[in-house]
Design a protein that fits this description.
Layout: E1 5-8, E2 13-16, E3 20-21, E4 24-25, H1 36-86, H2 91-101, E5 105-112, E6 115-126, H3 135-141, E7 149-158, E8 167-173, E9 184-192, E10 203-209, E11 215-223, E12 229-236, E13 238-245, E14 249-251, E15 268-270, E16 275-284, E17 286-289, H4 299-302, E18 306-309, E19 319-322, H5 324-327, E20 332-336, E21 343-347, E22 367-369, E23 376-378, E24 383-391, E25 407-413, E26 428-431, E27 439-442, E28 445-447, E29 449-456, E30 462-470, E31 476-482
Length: 483
């Protein structure tokens, strides 16, 4: 060998010879092996490459499983709809199915390939195919051929569904020939909010009575759909009460609310072969918050009560009146329907909406409060101040307790003639005891309007009075009462 390599000619192969120095074999650089660090680095790089691949594989398997479950769920939903349609082959079967399913959510389970599927079926009556579809249109048609049908929704969920959405199938089930009774009718209930949109998920309950008061239909309930419609089919002829129930909601026609649900009309008459419409305005209530009384500046004014006005309040001649006891504890009035036009308001209740010159005498018009569902509007009604001087001329000496026990009252009146209010209101005590002297002064606060300022003794006898008024142009009225 010429050097440290052995050449095998003709084969193109070289065999290296490791040289020796002093008997010690020295390794060449080309014969170096992998170090521990190199092995660790290589392993980490391999893991970094395999982790995303494993995640991708897992996601692929999961999506494949979800797709398989959705296909099974869709088949189960379709099969449920077809099974229900098959029950409409006879009047007896159809009526039994309607009694079981309509207004209820009926669930069942089925296991396929180790996965448990839950099948939820919901049915509700809907206006028939002869209508244009909406609750309002169906009710307005009131047509004898408005034969109701059953709107059916089947929703299927399954175990380990994770983020996958449920499968939903909807369809219409038509009653078989002969299922309709010509001696029954339908009731279509439309519930809308203040903006005129349908109120969904409102619980509607009805009960029917004959002209003699005998019950012809027990309580039946249904929830409104996305259009705010609840349809009650095949009802015995009679007069029906309708109640609505949804927490925090109030009816426009029955404001202020005295109960959680109250119909704005006593009954709706269901007649044979027709659909009777019933329409409600129903929305979340709002409140008005009065200022807190301070240093008597508002306290006496508030004692005259509060009036709210809106032309839609047809049941109460356009106004709502509240005595001071209504808001004395919380300084607020709630459960008001949020009319889009809002309310005008003022202290005092001596008012009739149909007259132009009634109390309160206000310039400008009464203050305005906007309204919106589930809100509280801060309001500060107008009020002024009466400066009253009381002189008892019957007392020979100012040291005599001539006014002791006498009170100063403010009696609202209709106008400058001193006529009584169309909506009578009791006088408010401004000062309960004028003191021991024969001359006394008082400066009570009162709403805008006309007042008889009266001095009354302990027996209730009026000793003297003076007529005055307060307005934006005359916020301070001065009177002297001598007797």
């Amino acid at each position: 060998m010429e050097d440290d390599r052995l050449k095998v000619r003709g084969l193109g192969v070289e065999i290296n010879h490791v040289p020796e120095h002093d008997g010690v074999r020295v390794a060449r650089r080309s014969d170096d092996g992998f170090t521990i660090v190199g092995v660790v680095v290589a392993s980490v790089m391999l893991l970094l490459a395999l982790i995303p691949a494993a995640a991708l594989l897992e996601a692929t398997v999961r999506v494949s499983g979800d797709n398989r479950n959705r296909v099974v769920a869709a088949n189960l939903a379709t099969a449920q709809l077809e099974n229900l349609r098959s029950l409409s082959n006879s009047t007896t079967n159809f009526n039994a199915m309607a009694q079981q399913y309509v207004g209820n959510t009926v669930t069942s389970t089925q296991k396929v390939g180790g996965v448990t599927y839950t099948i939820a079926t919901n049915m509700r009556w809907s206006a028939g195919t002869f209508s244009s579809g909406s609750c309002a249109a169906s009710a307005a048609e009131n047509a004898p051929n408005l034969n109701p049908v059953i709107q059916t929704t089947v929703t299927v969920t399954w175990t380990n569904q994770r983020l996958a959405t449920p499968v939903t199938e909807s369809g219409v089930i038509n009653p078989p020939y002969g299922a309709y009774n010509t001696q029954t009718g339908n009731l279509s209930v439309l519930v809308q909010n203040a903006a005129g949109n349908g109120d969904p998920n409102v619980q509607v309950s009805i009960s029917g009575y004959s002209s003699t008061g005998a019950m012809v239909q027990g309580v039946e309930a249904a929830s409104t759909d996305v259009n705010g419609c609840a349809f009650f089919a095949n009802l015995p002829v009679g007069n029906y009460n309708v109640d609505l129930s949804y927490e925090g909601y109030v009816l426009a026609q029955s404001t202020p609310q005295t109960s959680a649900s109250a119909p704005y009309a006593p009954t709706w008459q269901v007649t044979a072969g027709t659909t009777t419409p019933a329409q409600f305005q129903y929305d979340q209530g709002f409140s008005v918050q009065l200022p807190t009384s301070d240093n008597n500046s508002m306290q006496v004014a508030q004692e005259f009560g509060l009036t709210l006005s809106n032309p839609n309040l047809t049941k109460t001649s356009g106004v709502l009146t509240y005595p001071a006891s209504t808001f004395s504890a919380t300084s607020s009035v709630g459960s008001l329907y949020p009319y889009t036009g809002g309310y005008t308001y003022w202290y005092g209740t001596c008012f009739i909406n149909t007259s132009t010159s009634q109390y309160p005498f206000t310039t400008p018009s009464p203050a305005y409060a906007p309204s919106a569902p589930q809100t509280t509007t801060q309001i500060i009604p107008y009020y002024g101040q009466i400066s009253a001087t009381v002189v008892d001329t019957t007392s020979p000496s100012t040291t005599s307790p001539s006014l002791s026990g006498d009170a100063l009252l403010l009696q609202p009146v209709d106008n400058g003639s001193g006529a009584a209010c169309p909506n009578p209101q009791s006088a408010v005590t401004a000062v309960s005891n004028l003191g021991d002297a024969s001359v006394a002064a008082a400066t009570p606060y009162a709403p805008y309007g006309y007042f008889n300022v009266e001095v009354v003794n302990s027996s209730g006898t009026i000793l003297g009075s003076a007529l005055t008024f307060l307005s934006a142009s005359q916020p301070l009225a001065t009177v002297t009462i001598s007797f």
